[in-house]
Amino acid sequence: MKLADVMTPFKVGLLVIAGVAATIVMVTLLSGDMDMDAEASKRYYAHFEDVTGLAVRSRIQMAGIPVGTIDSIRLDGSRARVEVSVRGDVVLYEGQLNPNGLDTNGAALAKRQASLIGDYYLELTPGTEGRVLENGDPIRNIIKDVGPDELFERLNDITKDIQAVTNSLATVFGNEDAQRSIQQMLDDMQNVLATLNQFVVTNSVKLDQLVTDASNIGRDISFLTARGSESIDTILRDTEAIVQEVRYIIGQSTTDVQAGLGTMQGTLARLQRTLDSLNYSLQNVQDITEKINEGEGTVGELINNPTIAYRTEQILEDAGDFLGRVTRLRTIVELRSEYHLQNQQLKNVFGLRLEPNEDKYYMFEFVDDFRGSTSVVTERVNTTDPSVDDALYQETRTTTTDEFKFSLVLGRSFQASDWLRLGGRFGIIESTGGIGATVGLFPDRRLEVQTDLFDFSAAENPRLRAYGTYRFLEFAYISGGIDDVINPDRRDYFIGAGIRFDDEDLKALLTTTGVPTP
How far apart are CA 463 and CA 13, in angstroms? Predict the structure, then answer.
């Protein structure tokens, strides 16, 4: 047997032995890092809605440092009971019980994903207030993590809202009369756009010509100024020379009169030449004045042509029209609170309303609703509890999260009579698609009745809200109505009050970003 034939199997065996030894060392080191002294650790338990990805001996971290492991996971009713062991030097607090029945500033557990391959661990927050948790106490605060499934479910709800609004629009605009009206509207809009385009093109040429004329005027004025300044300088120099000569003559004594007469003759000759130069300059000025009066040149065209004055007047009218739109824009700030009698909770709303005119408005609202955002989830649960007759049963869970909502609507209205004004609106109402209507009574619309229909993706019927407001002061009003009218189990009555005022300072800020066109 050759040595080469023996070395190859020997190398393979040596490599296998080294790999097994390295694996044993790694497992021993990792196990040693995760093991804790049973006497120095404390055991707690918590209930989770979902423990997907967690397993026995999964790590527990605090600030990125392992402080414990999961001892056991078992089903307790419809939830999972997770028992954990935490290092004894980690102090956990129970927290303070608030009026809503929640422990605030207490110890909390949250399921976190360590990597994209599905490795999960528990993140521990020790808390800061309340009683120190003892061995065997529960950790009540469980932070729910939003996973991809729940995110897609929310997107699905939004898609359903959009589909419901689309179906509503199809119902409203799907008949032949509505289609003819829309076609007529599109034709009228096309005619308006064509007329506007022609107007812009025509005035663009005129404005270009006006700019060119202004440039020529500036050039001619510069030329006249430069030429006139040279003539004036010449006249001043000649006049100064004359004055000097006269002073010289007067200063001579009587004995030098004859000599002075000879000098005066030379001075008079120079004075004659100066007068001739002055006459020439005055003749040039007269020629320029005659050309201007006859309308020659840019300056003559500017002074004698009434078309330029008419165009300037049009530009001023356009500027005045724009300033008028800015002046007519109303920026209305609204703050109101509603007390719901059934739930005994407050609902607060901050609103900003932009009104280019009385027939159109844009409204944005920021809503703090005690109902929050509600989602309904139905699950089929297979339990191993022997006390349950049917091991496979269906469970429906309603989850409500405390989050803000917003509204963004476009509204139109018209005056039906001196005492009646009707209006409608469409857009996003409390973070869902919806529509609404308004009836204003009295000439100053101090009494208004409003309805809103939204939340078409609700488990039961859409949410219908009807209420009225009465303005007893220029800036203050009271309100009352019924919320969720067509869902008896969620129906609630409410009363409220609010303030509404025009903010001129806010309008000044908004005009720097554009003003809605009436």
Answer: 74
Write the CA distances from 236 to 224, 230, 232, 241, 410, integer angstroms. 18, 10, 6, 9, 73
What is the DSSP track for 385-452? -TT-S-SEEEEEEEEEE---EEEEEEEEEEEEETTEEEEEEEEEETTEEEEEEEEEESTT--EEEEEE
Taking CA 445 as the corner, what is the angle to CA 442 and CA 447, rounded to the nearest 5 degrees?
85
Listed in order, strand segments (DSSP E) in 208-281 are none
Closest CA to 483 of 455, 510, 508, 511: 455
Query: Do the beta carbons of residue 368 and residue 404 sit within 8 Å?
Result: yes
Give SS3 for 65.
Answer: strand
Percent of the chain surpassing pLDDT 90 = 33
Q: Which of 399, 194, 193, 222 is nearest to 298 (CA)?
A: 222
Using the predicted structure, report yes or no on whether residue 470 has a pLDDT greater than 80. Answer: yes
Contact status, residue 466 vs residue 448, Cβ threshold 8 Å: no
Q: What would the pLDDT profile of 407-466 be if each residue is shown by its tens digit?
A: 999 999 999 999 999 999 999 999 999 999 999 999 888 999 999 999 887 667 899 999
Q: What is the value of pTM for the model shown?
A: 0.39
CATH 3.30.420 assigned to 330-513: no
Burial label for 220, CB within 10 Å (0-12, 13-18, 19+), is middle
Q: How far apart are CA 375 and CA 372, in angstroms?
A: 10
CA distance 343 to 337: 14
Tokens of 108: 């909390």
**b/e 382-410 (16+ beta carbons within 10 angstroms → b):** eeeeeeeeeeeeeeeeeeeeeeebebebe
CA 206 to chain centre: 39
- Which residues on neighbouring strands pair with residue 360, listed in sequence order? 357, 412
Residue at 258: amino acid letter = Q
Residues 6+ apart with CB under 8 A from 382: 391, 392
Q: Rounded distance, CA 225 to CA 233, Å? A: 12
